[in-house]
Amino acid sequence: MEELRPLVIGDLVVEKPIIQGGMGVGISLHRLAGAVAKAGGMGIISAAQIGFTEPDFAENPEEANARAIHKEMKLAREIAPEGAVGFNIMVATKHYDRWVKEAVKAGADIIISGAGLPVSLPEYVEEAYREMEEPPKRRIKLAPIVSTAKSAMVICKMWDRKCHTAPDLVVVEGPLAGGHLGFSLDQLTQYGADTDDVPSSYNQAAYDQEIKAILKVVKEYGDKYGRHIPVVVAGGIYTHEDVMHQIGLGADGVQVATRFVTTEECDAPEVYKQAYISAGKADIVITKSPVGMPGRAIKNSFLTAVGDGIRPAIPHCYRCLEKCDIAKIPYCITQALVNAARGDNDNALLFCGSNACRATKISTVERVMDSLMGKTAE
């Protein structure tokens, strides 16, 4: 059996090959990211509307978010001074370039970026370095999120041609992931990941072949630049056996999000965590997000109302998405996710992964990490 080795990303070494997935709004902030980093994994803070608790968020969301990026990184570093901590930044958000620059200036170890193709990510990082009086000694690592070999090829080809570089890490997010998904509804149907009995209907073998194709693309560009580009796989990773399956395919590690929600350290409110514990398989559904992508969430009164054509009032625009027409969207995704982060479950979008229904109790980050590493049977 393959052994679990440290995740080596250039000069950044993560003791345990487990990345905690970024979850916004307000679900993975400094407490969760810091705890995972302290436990030897990589902690990821979600930059999505990160400033929602700032007093001027409604009036000036851009400045509130910018401040919060620095605050959350500082607090995470206080928890894990030597740990690996980074940000997840969505391409689809307004001011994407600024969030990237703020993350660089805040001293993040890595930026993981998806919800669109992060073709300009290296350029924005270089701009940030030019704006800094003292750039850090260790360069920030850049990791695009891909779901298919085609998207991996597009990103690698664009970075190679435009920026003469390649990713430092690639995150492969499969169809069992939570939140926004990089698949069409037809693709989710193809993999059997669009039903209420996932993961029992999931075609693991079919997506394993896609992962192998992505590994091949990444190796091609790693060879071109004379270095190994590690690949981690996300989506439906819940047990040590799931971790070892991905390692057996050739992955260097895994990214896990849903499993960390029901921990004491997760930044989510208790009622959010309890929604996971109370959910059954049939409660986990695919919904269409205003972002324009399918998303996986827990069915509640909010999603039922939206499905019935009831449009919640949108009293304020937070200017969160690059492509959003407030007159046409079914609901404001920022407001729905902020409601979730504030514990207003009845008016919230409760994003989750396909395995959320497997949670039965509140655990701790340390116990979850030990379980994923195969040290305990929890």
UniProtKB/TrEMBL annotation:
UniProt keyword annotations, A-Z? Dioxygenase, Flavoprotein, FMN, Oxidoreductase
Gene3D superfamilies to which the protein is assigned, alphabetical: Aldolase class I (3.20.20.70)
Query: What would you give as a GO molecular function for this chain, any one?
Result: nitronate monooxygenase activity
Superkingdom assignment: Bacteria
Report the InterPro entries cross-referenced here. Aldolase_TIM, NMO
Q: What does this protein do?
A: Nitronate monooxygenase that uses molecular oxygen to catalyze the oxidative denitrification of alkyl nitronates. Acts on propionate 3-nitronate (P3N), the presumed physiological substrate. Probably functions in the detoxification of P3N, a metabolic poison produced by plants and fungi as a defense mechanism.
Q: What is this protein called?
A: Probable nitronate monooxygenase
| Organism in which the protein naturally occurs | Enterocloster lavalensis
